[in-house]
Protein: D-3-phosphoglycerate dehydrogenase
Amino acid sequence: MSIKVLRLDRWIDPCFDQILGAEPGVDLSVMKLSDPDDVNWTKLAEADIYHVSAAKDEVPQKWQVTPELIARCPRLKVVSSTGAGYDTVDVEACTRAGILVVNQAGGNANSVAQHTFSLLLALANRIVESDHLLKTASGLLREDLMGRELTGKVLGIVGIGHIGARVAQLACAFGMQVLACDPYVDEATVCARGAAPAPMEELLAGSDIVSLHCPRNKETLGMFGGKAFQSMKRGALFISTARGGIHDETALYTALESGHLGGAGLDVWMVEPPPHDHPLLTLPNVVSTYHTAGVTHEARRNIATISARQILDICAGRTPPRMINPEVHPAIPAQFQSAASI
Structure:
């Protein structure tokens, strides 16, 4: 009996299907969101592994991994997120049910770090403002759009995992000082990744730019609100390529509109995409993008490759490298031994 892998019909690099399709003992099928619900529930009930989009606004609630979905999927052993995030997966519910959750952390680190600096440079050099005014205004002096150098500035990184570490490397290349706060990384590792460890209060007070690179979970949801923004330097810049909901959008608007913060670069939103009349989109010192930091040709291919190979690792009884709830894993290999041998 083959191991049944089910993925949603969201865009994915073709190498994912090619890698899994070439493996005997693995039966890959695609769940089309346009199909009738009863057809999709049948597919889910037969799936051993569910590869689900990490973007919450791309997946209807009924197909996100909730206790309700888990109750209807008796064979489900593994949930694989399509990205570093796992907003569509209730990890605690999976753990209670003995379901392993894996993600693709690091697969898009280069792309997200590059995008982070794209936002930062656009703000520091006022590129979006300049582009707009060059096309619409007259009589401006170049000094009206004077920017700032990054050399010597302090960058505060919140979360120094795969992406945060790469951002720290780029910051050092620009001659910046780097602080980092991450409760899951020891001080020696923070230093090895190119940053000086700092508690959150010190990081906020001492940074010219604060950049978020932490996951969205119960600990980080709403972490950056009015108090955090007021704790930042006056004129500081705020960047997020992490997840919507970690920062309070209303509080950020207030901090920007009042002049306390100098600008924001945002790739993530509470609702994606945000409505056109979103208050933050009305501010000239906000550079906004479409949650595309990790959406490059290279990153998408890399993530599809490592996710397919990680699934094959699991099927073969090997320990996957990117587990969210590793305490569940010891029971997983035996469950697959009765299904197939790879």
The longest strand covers residues 3-8. DSSP finds 13 helices and twelve strands in the chain. Residues 3-103+297-336 form a domain with the Rossmann fold fold (CATH 3.40.50.720). The longest helix spans residues 297-315.
